[in-house]
Design a protein that fits this description.
This protein is α/β, with parallel strands linked by helices and 267 residues long. 58% of the residues lie in helices and 8% in strands. The chain is built from twelve helices and six strands.
Length: 267
Amino acid sequence: MLLLAPLVAIAGNLAGLLIATAVAWAWFSYRRNKRPADLSHRLNEAQRAVLSKYAIHYQRLGQADKAKFERIVAHFVHEKEWTGAGVAMEHEMKLMISACAAQLLLGHPDVVLKHFQRIVVYPRSYRSRPTGRMHQGEVRPQAGLILISWEDFLHGYAHTRDAHNVGLHEMAHALWFENSILNGEDDFLHPERLARWMEHAEGEMARIRKGQSRLFRDYAATNQAEFFAVAVEYFFEQPTLFHKELPELYAILCGMLEQDPDRILLS
């Protein structure tokens, strides 16, 4: 037994070394995946001209924020997989949908929704296979898909004050899911702010269900993910009213997204 004791100790040390090595390798792999996305792509003058003409949020930004906005757009255009489902995938379509993503991600310019690698564009509302219902857009986290009806996307940006914008709504869903997917982009929404948001959201959802909504449409009370997506639509399309009616909630969302569209409107 005495002769076996050193061997047991050596085996224990070896097992500990192997575990430590495995942990170190896992940590290295995780840190490697935490590297920011390649944002080296640049837009050309023709692409900037499209943004200057049609992307309203881009038009309101200062030069520094425009540069960040352009880098996000360029990454989406060049790095995402674009598929037209019954429609020819025009370059302007990629630019404008990418600009919608950049509008939401401007305060987190290193986040590019890496889990959602494929964007599928339909010509108009379509029947969703998972639900069997007609959709204007949807996000499928399991497949890493963002789906958009181009006709409804254009309608959202043609009516910029009604807080109905399918592009912003679906990108908000993607952002919401991305924050909890362990892929190196997770937890970019400050945990304390997110917890405060969810607490305030529950209270507002309860008021909506009682018919006492101070701002949001009834659909926002569906669940936390839908509440966030609807709130994002109001945040960008009715920021002054949102700020006035729900100042606490508005301030939390400003902190989460690291931007303040009401201030941009006033500047």
